[in-house]
Specification:
This protein has 98 residues and is mainly alpha-helical. The protein has three helices and two strands.
Length: 98
């Protein structure tokens, strides 16, 4: 499926995302750079290494669908875990700042 059909984040991606994707895949020789346990080795997608809003080439790498899906799922679970922790244990305002 094309990236714009499956991604709920497409509004966050720049208008030239298809060109960026092509450039990253070509740079990395269409080889998955994550190489996880279920890796197919053939990259068809692009993964943000760090900040998901940083679309510079240094923050992007080629990924196979299996590795990209596993990484994205793990990031989503971590974010949900952090949100639950924050809800259970809200930060207290320092008495001197209240």
């Amino acid at each position: 499926m094309p990236w714009d059909v499956v991604s709920r984040r497409r509004a966050e991606l720049p208008p030239d995302w298809p060109i960026i994707t092509r450039d990253v895949l070509e740079r990395d020789g269409h080889q998955c750079q994550i190489v996880g346990p279920n890796c197919t080795r053939i990259a068809t997608e692009v993964d943000h290494k760090d900040d998901r809003h940083d679309h510079t080439l240094r923050n992007l790498r080629a990924a196979c669908h299996a590795c990209h899906a596993q990484r994205t799922s793990a990031q989503g679970h971590a974010a949900a875990r952090e949100a639950r922790q924050a809800a259970l244990h809200p930060r207290e305002t320092h008495p001197g700042l209240a």
